[in-house]
Amino acid sequence: MLWAAGQSQYKQFISNADCDDAYLFSICMAPLRLTAFTENNQEILVFQNPSTSYCWPIKPIFRQERETFEKLEIEKNQKSNLFSPTQHSDSR
After folding, report:
1. Source organism's superkingdom (predicted)?
2. pLDDT tens digit sequence for 1-15
3. How far from 46 is each of 16, 58, 92, CA to CA, in Å?
4. Which candidate among 10, 66, 71, 74 keeps its CA 20 to 30 Å from the CA of 80?
5. How many CB atoms lie within 10 A of CB 62?
6. Does the predicted model carry a pTM greater than 0.70?
7. Residue 61 in contact with residue 25, Cβ under 8 Å?
8. Cβ neighbours of 23 (radius 10 Å)
């Protein structure tokens, strides 16, 4: 990984021999603003992120970095964001 060059491994004990902390990927979410609505439809600010470096871990993955792995994750996300014709409503 180019962006992680020179960083040390944590050397955590992992029981599975196929997993190593060198192969740890973490999918994170960095929300910029989180709001909620009250019963009388007033918007309330729940959380405002002062920096995009504050992020929430969502899913840790132990897998070697490969181009195909990255493509699979991207394709999976793109497929989940597609709308089927029955879900799409045209307001014309």
Report:
1. Eukaryota
2. 444 444 555 555 556
3. 40, 19, 35
4. 66
5. 14
6. no
7. yes
8. 13
